[in-house]
Amino acid sequence: MILNRLSILNFKNISQVDLDLSPGINCFLGNNGMGKTNLLDAVYYLSFCKSSTQVIDSQNIRHGEDFFMLQGYYDKDGVPEELYCGLKRKQKKQFKRNKKEYTRLSDHIGFVPLVSVTPADSELIRGGSEERRKFLDLVISQFDKEYLDTLIRYNKALTQRNALLKDEIGDDSLYEIWEEQMARYGATVYQARHSFLDAFTPVFQEFYDYISGGSEAIGLTYVSDIERGDLFAQLASVRERDRILGYTTRGVHRDDMEMTLGEYPMKRIGSQGQNKTLLVALKLAQFDFLSKNGSTPILLLDDIFDKLDAQRVEKIVRLVSGERFGQIFITDTNRKYLDEIIRQTGNSYHLYSVENGNITPLNEKRV
Fold first, then answer.
1. Could you say which DSSP state residue 225 is in?
2. Which DSSP category does 65 fall into?
3. Full-prediction pTM beyond 0.90?
4. pLDDT band at residue 60 using 50, 70 and 90 as cut-offs
5. Is 80 exposed, middle or buried (0-12, 13-18, 19+ CB in 10 A)?
6. Cβ–Cβ contacts within 10 Å for residue 352, how many?
């Protein structure tokens, strides 16, 4: 998948930009707060129909304006594709593929595979289990439409059960309706996550070993309430306690992906460099997995060189500039450092300067 041209209007701090992009590496240089991450977020938005920052849609509209618009012109395995997203304040978002609006935005997920590595990924390690579930769901949903539909159905049943609990409804038969659905859909979600992680973990470990030099034992383990037994029976057994609490305490919405360094949790003993290496390896394994299950994803690398030693940076750059990776977007604050790294790859690249939301192509281009 290649993004040939990107048009942005009134998105965050970017007033207007129209970029012709390299099919190889695209580098965006500038100080912090200038708009580099916002540009990458526009690319992300066209893949997932939402911002990576989880803000409500209207907050993406540039201050003082009434709307934003994004347009991307792609090459998907030799076929031209046009994506459009527009939003006016207090109106419904429009998302179109080749000028035809989607009936359901979930139908678009996976059409433009994308992997993003950003400083916010640190929440995967130090944050709650919800962050790690989101990672699993995001990866699986990009290549398995049935999984996404099942997850949506499970969450709808969970919402209905929680509503009964909050209203302190005492009729057990009403709970059983939604608990049966949660058990059925939850079993499918559990199996998909478990199978994915079994296949994913060795690839992740391979990337981590390469970047770190193979001197650190790293692991991923899936933890789920389903492993305690039938979810339908579990939900019945905790129903009275859940009524008191007002929410559902068992189910796949509480699953976790534990990350370990040696025998200990990564979040407790990992250094900044080890944490960053884990996150990069996790995302590169995601990239590899999606590539094998469809088109080559677009790769976004937002300020990833911070907190990594020179040896690990060099290994990452050599890795992503290889044949297994496709189009890459990189942001950094240090031009001299980035110039040197990119030129060593020998690949096609474009350089851009970003200042106060203005994006200017620099003279140096290799196409």
1. G
2. -
3. no
4. confident
5. exposed
6. 21
